[in-house]
Structures are given as structure tokens and as C-alpha cells.
Amino acid sequence: MSKLQIPLLAALLFVVSAHVSTVFAKADITFNGDIQYRIRYHYVMLKDSAGEDSSAAPDLLNTYGWNLKWKITVNENLMFGIRLSNPAGYATDRIGENLNKVSSSNYNILSIPELYFKWSVGFFSLSAGIIPAKPNSVLNLVAYETNGYKGVGTTTWSVLMNNSQKGLDLGLQFINNETLRLGMDVMASIADDAPGSDKYNTLKYDQIRLLVSFPTSIGNDFISLLPAMHVRFNAYRSIDTVNTKSKWDDANHTLAGGCDLHIKPLENLTARLGAAGGMYNNECQENDSLLSIDTDNDGQPDQNAPVTICSPIGMLFTGGVTYEPGFGKAIVDFFFGRSRDREQSPALNNDLLFWDVKYAMPVKSLTIMPRMRIWYYKTEDSESTETRLRPELILKASF
To answer: For residue 279, which of 396, 122, 138 has the smallest C-alpha distance?
Structure first.
């Protein structure tokens, strides 16, 4: 770099930084966050096919979670969003984990679940980056696609994925008035290489996700509907044994669809129902390294054994009520999940019933929430059952 170029570059950086400073000086910046602490009792009751009790010892846990959020509105067309959180996000981390000083063996002291911009003009909007998720029954179902839908209903996309998605989000608002609001939302994402047998691990076969939804509101939010459809291309890799390369038509793709309904008959009462179903479209896929999901957030994978995925079908039904009696609010939710793989893997034939009951009591900037969760699992091939009880007390301070 010549002596002349150095001052020119410095002058250019000064002009750019001055312009950026001017723009952000006029921007509307909001900052908020929260820290929560949970004391949790975790009990698992197991019964094998003979009815014998093989329950594990109960566990008492301390967990924590935190969020820091920035929202920068530059003008009526452009907004930036950032959120930092604890490593596990809304799933919460155990006290004592991920809190040590940063070293080569422990550098995961936080996560960045939101880092995006939103640009909007009239009825059109575009968001890109790590975007806040818009929870619905379809997302809650496809969160368990990788495991052949086993465990669907155990928890939500927001907990498993820290309420985020990576990619592009296109929004259209067709109708927007007090009587009726109708829009369309398209989320597109490129995921990692599709999982598959170890013998195929040299293949580069990216997964592509599309989530299309139609948010609808009738009568000033008296009724809200959210029909949605999700497609994931290349859910599992396939191989042409003759030409030794991937074949699109033999790959396993997934398709899911569903709808959520919210009704607000009274100012202090909201009822909700949801249903979703999903399936793989193709034949059996050998998988020597099935991804494991820690569904109970105890730090240990729930399953590690390889399994052959054939024709899995997943179903999820949800319901709930929120009631605000005057102080705080009572929230009751239930999930019923079912996974089936009729051709090959009876171990994937599972049913799940999940109840979540909590009462949020706000006191100034502190929310006190007693909570009780109950899971009941049943495996069809062995008739074994599992019941999990998890009472906890949540203390959440917000600013």
C-alpha cells in the first residue's frame, strides 16, 4: 500500500463511520433481557414389558437461563435484531455447567440465537439471518423428524432450537383491517449435510427446508388460524451403487402439514388447538449414526443405537387454555404425539402424552411460576412404559 493510499483509506473509513454514527444516532434502540432460575425435581418411573419397575433414582436440579435483546429500528423500512442467551437457551443449563473461564476445552459460554435484519416496504417484508421462530404445531412436529418422529410432543421447537431458524423469511400481507387479516409467510433454510450411513459420509448432499404458512385473524383476533406446510429435501442421503453418487429421486424427503387455531371468547380467556402430521416419502434408509436428541434436557442423549429409517409417520395433537383471573395467569397445555414406522422399525412405534400446568404471578419485575410437567411414553413393540414427573419453581427477573 502506497503512502498516498493510507490517508485516503483513513479518510474513507472516517466518512463511513461518521455516516453510520449519524444513522444510528437517529435510530430507535431498545434493550431488554431476563434471567431465570429454576429449582427442579426430576423423577422417572420405568416399567418393562413384564411390568417390572426399573425406575431410576430421582434427581434435584438447579438450572438457569438468560437473554439479552437489542432491537434497532433505523427507519420505517429497516430493523435489526440481536439476542444473546445461555448455551442451551430456553432449555436452560444446569448451574455449574458452562460457567467456567473460557479455555480450549470450554468456549461455549453463550449462544447467539438471533442475529438478523428485517426490511419491509408496504405489504412486503424480508428477514434474513438467524431469525426468531414463529412457533406452531408443524414446527413442533418436524423438530423430531431426524429420529423418525420418535419423541414428538416431548417439547417444542422453541426449546430444542432456542426459538430460532436460520435462513430467509419472506412475508406478504394481503388483507389488513380490524375484521380480517390474511398473510403468507415463506421461510427458506439450507441446513447441514443430510445424515446417513457412515459409508456415504463423503457425499455432499445439503438439506433444504421450506416452511409456508398463512397467518389469518378474524374479528380483531377473536379467531386466529395458522395453516402451515413444511418440506425438507434430502432428509437422508441415498446412493447409486453403480455410479457411486447421490440420486435426487432416491433420496428421502419429508412432508408435513397442519393447522393451529386460537380462540379468544373472553378478554381474559384464550383456548388453542393444533394438529400436524408428517411423513417420509421414500424407501428405507440405512443410518449408522442416527442423531440423538436430549428430550428431557438431562445432559444425556435419550437414544444412541443405530436404526434403519423406513416409512416413518409422525402425528401431533395439541390443546391448551390460558386464563387470567385478575392476578397472574394460569396456563394448561397438553400434547399427544405418535410415531409409526410400519415397514421396518417397530422400536419407533411410540405414543406420548404430555401435560404442562403452570401459574405465572408477576410481582413488579419478577415473575414467580410454579410448574408441573408429566410425560407418559409407551413403546408399542415391547409394551414398556415410562412416566416422567417434573415439578419445578421458576423465578424470572426481567428488565
So the answer is: 138
